[in-house]
Structure formats: structure tokens, C-alpha cells
Design brief:
This protein has 403 residues and is mainly α. The chain is built from 14 helices and 2 strands. It is globular.
């Protein structure tokens, strides 16, 4: 039966089968597919776990223990879900850094970038909500600390915190709300991921050269086969953690039932929050620290506005490439600082790394972009003045250096 052109099946076919992709995509473009795979795994395992979880402060910890000990293959579901969250963030961080290096945020793809940033913010929210559900020591105190951030809101901060709690402290109402939001926001991410793909396919994928290309091939079967390499490597790493080191990415205090009367020696978030946690700690005051942490995420949204390079790829922008890899090291340093106690020299290291983080987005990156644009504009001008180059390509738009 011939599919209707406007049917949902036709849309899926256009997006995942017959979609024309640039011929020069490398393996860094696998991370989008891997993120989709990780999301599907999280949904399947999460829904399965939800069937046996009890969102009650007296029963939550024991229900997780029941899943691990009594449910057939419950341990596998739990470890797949908890480690899957960490692998999901690994893939998404790699996806973000790839987009930053190859300029995937530049016009006309800024909409794709903003939707991706929103997915990232929702991922952090869902991960935090899910971390509270086992109701261990770190779950309870993490919820207490994070929800108190809203108290910085002028005039209504205390009321907002009590509304989130459903009372005057983190309690059973809080756990029920977090459970509902964790489940609901997961499907919001699914919807935004679909929108992310739709908007991406309006203008086509970026490519490693950083210039528009009309040299394309069908996504199927060429990139399906190429993506299988990345999928297989991802699954090897994923199941290595699940079967051999399932607890290495968690915190031991979360295997102790929540006790409001005992404060852990140090309250440390999951590893994927550590860079933001280090930025928060680098400011000695609560309100400025929370606002700075929010700006650290907001800087990603502002990226298409502060940087508009003529040629997008970092491979062709040596000044930007140096700054980019320094920025990657800075983010890793922030993660390392966030995992250590608030003491010398980690406090000073965190403050220096935080300054560089914001300097990269608001000072160094705009400067590097202006420098690269000036350099490429000279090259473009020389090309237009060369009669042999004009004869070889009569339409200057073929080069797409100036958009």
C-alpha cells in the first residue's frame, strides 16, 4: 500500500530513512543516535521499575530493596536505569561539545540548539527528581539542599519552597510530587526530542567542514551502518558498568535509609552535576551562587547570540580550537573540584575555573569569532577578486562562507 505523503509514516520515513545527510559526517555525529538509544533504554527500564516502586517515605527505600532482591531480574533493571542515567549524560555532554566545536548553534540552526539546551535542562531536572526516589541519605539531603535554592526568590521564596515541599519540610508529599514529575517530565523530553529532529531536518545537518554542502547521501543504509559502530561501542561500555561496576557511579550514603536527624559528612551530587556544583560553591554567598549557577546554563542559550562565525568548524578556526580544548579541560577541572571538600586549594581552583568558564562564553569566544571572521573575509575577498576562481565557480554562494 502506498503511503500518503502527509501521513506520520511518511514523516518517519523522511526523517530516518530517506533523509539526505552530508557525505562527510564523521563518528562525532553518532552521539545524537546514542542519546536517542539511551532515552529509549531509560524509558523502558523506568516504566518497569515504576510498577514495583512505592512513593512513600516509610516504604520507598524498602520497595527499592524489594526490587533488587525479590523481583526477578529486578537488580538488572535497577542497575540499567541508574547507570543508564550516567551514560545518558556522558553522551549528551559529548553531543554538546561536538555541537560547540563544529558550530552547530550558528544560524540557521540556532533553533535546534535552543531545543537541545532545553532538553539538557529537563534532563538535569529529571535526574535530580529520580535521585530523590530511593529515599536514601543522599536523596533526602540532596532534596533539602536543592529545593532551598528557591528561597532566594524575593518576597515569595519561602512560600515557593513550602509549596514544592507540600509542607514545612521535605516529607511524603515532596516524594509523591517528585515521583509524578519524574515520570511526567520524561515524556516531555521525548516530545522535545522529536521536535529537535523535526527542526534539525528543516535545514539539514551541519558537517565537519563548517560550510553548507549539497553533496548528500540517503541516511539509510549508509549512516545506519556507521551508527551501528557507535551503538555497539556504547552498549559494551554500558553493560561493562552494569555487570562489573554497577555501584561505582553512585554514592555509598544513598544505600542508607534517609534520616532527617543525621546530616552526612558531605553532601555531593551525582557526577554529572559536579561542574555546576563547583560553580555554585565558588561564590561564598547563597543568592549570587545560585544565580551564577543558573547563568552557567543560560550561557549555552546565549551562545548563538554572542558567537556568529562565518565558517563554523573548529577544524578551520585555530584560535577557537585552542580556546575550545582549554574550555573542555576547564569543565573537567570543575567536575574534579566539585567532588572534593570545600577547602583550600579546591575553593581557589573552583573560583579560577569559574572565571574562565564565563570568560570563554562572554569574552574569549566573541573575540575569537571576530578574529576568525576577519581572517575568512579576507580570504573570501581574495577569492572574488581572482578571475580564475570566479570562472571555476560563477556563483559565490557555492562557497557559503558568508551567510
Amino acid at each position: 500500500m502506498r503511503l500518503n505523503h502527509y501521513s506520520s509514516f511518511s514523516m518517519v520515513n523522511q526523517m530516518l530513512v530517506s533523509y539526505k545527510a552530508p557525505t562527510n559526517l564523521n563518528y562525532f555525529w553518532n552521539f545524537g543516535v546514542l542519546a536517542g538509544l539511551a532515552l529509549v533504554i531509560q524509558l523502558i527500564t523506568g516504566i518497569s521499575l515504576a510498577m514495583h516502586y512505592t512513593p512513600h517515605i516509610e516504604l520507598a527505600f524498602n520497595s527499592v530493596d524489594h526490587i533488587m532482591r525479590d523481583l526477578q531480574y529486578g537488580w538488572l533493571l535497577r542497575y540499567m536505569h541508574s547507570n543508564g542515567a550516567s551514560l545518558f549524560f556522558m553522551v549528551v555532554y559529548a553531543h554538546i561539545f561536538r555541537g560547540l566545536y563544529y558550530g552547530s548553534y550558528v544560524y540557521p540552526r540556532q533553533g535546534v540548539w535552543w531545543i537541545g539546551c532545553t532538553i539538557y535542562v529537563l534532563m538535569m531536572a529529571v535526574a535530580f527528581l529520580g535521585y530523590v526516589l530511593p529515599w536514601g541519605q543522599m536523596s533526602f539531603w540532596g532534596a533539602t539542599v536543592i529545593t532551598n535554592f528557591f528561597s532566594i526568590i524575593p518576597f515569595f521564596g519561602k512560600d515557593v519552597v513550602e509549596w514544592i515541599w507540600g509542607g514545612f519540610a521535605v516529607n511524603n508529599a515532596t516524594l509523591n510530587r517528585f515521583y509524578s514529575l519524574h515520570y511526567f517530565l520524561s515524556f516531555v523530553i521525548v516530545g522535545l526530542s522529536a521536535l529537535h529532529l523535526i527542526v534539525l531536518h528543516q535545514h539539514g545537518a551541519n558537517n565537519p567542514l563548517g560550510v553548507e554542502s549539497k553533496d548528500t547521501i540517503p541516511f539509510y543504509p549508509y549512516y545506519y551502518v556507521k551508527d551501528l559502530v557507535g551503538v555497539n561501542l556504547y552498549l559494551i561500555v554500558y553493560f561493562f558498568f552494569v555487570f562489573f561496576y554497577p555501584e561505582v557511579l553512585g554514592h555509598p550514603d544513598n544505600y542508607v535509609p534517609a534520616n532527617p536527624m543525621v546530616t552526612p559528612p558531605s553532601i555531593v551530587p551525582e557526577w554529572y552535576f559536579l561542574p555546576m556544583y563547583a560553580i555554585l560553591r565558588s561564590i561564598p554567598y547563597k543568592a549570587p551562587g545560585v544565580l551564577t549557577m543558573g547563568l552557567a546554563v543560560g550561557a549555552l542559550y546565549l551562545l548563538p547570540l554572542v558567537s556568529k562565525p562565518i565558517v563554523r568548524s573548529g577544524d578551520n578556526r585555530p584560535v577557537f580550537a585552542i580556546l575550545f580544548w582549554t574550555f573542555v579541560v576547564d569543565c573537567l577541572l570543575l567536575g574534579w573540584v566539585g567532588s572534593n571538600h570545600v577547602e583550600t586549594p579546591w575553593v581557589e581552583c573552583g573560583q579560577i575555573a569559574t572565571v574562565y568558564y564565563f570568560a570563554f562564553f562572554f569574552v574569549l569566544l566573541p573575540f575569537a569569532t571576530q578574529f576568525d571572521n576577519y581572517y575568512f573575509s579576507l580570504l573570501y575577498k581574495d577569492h572574488l577578486n581572482d578571475p580564475f576562481s570566479r570562472k571555476k565557480s560563477s556563483d559565490a554562494n557555492d562557497f557559503k562562507l558568508l551567510e
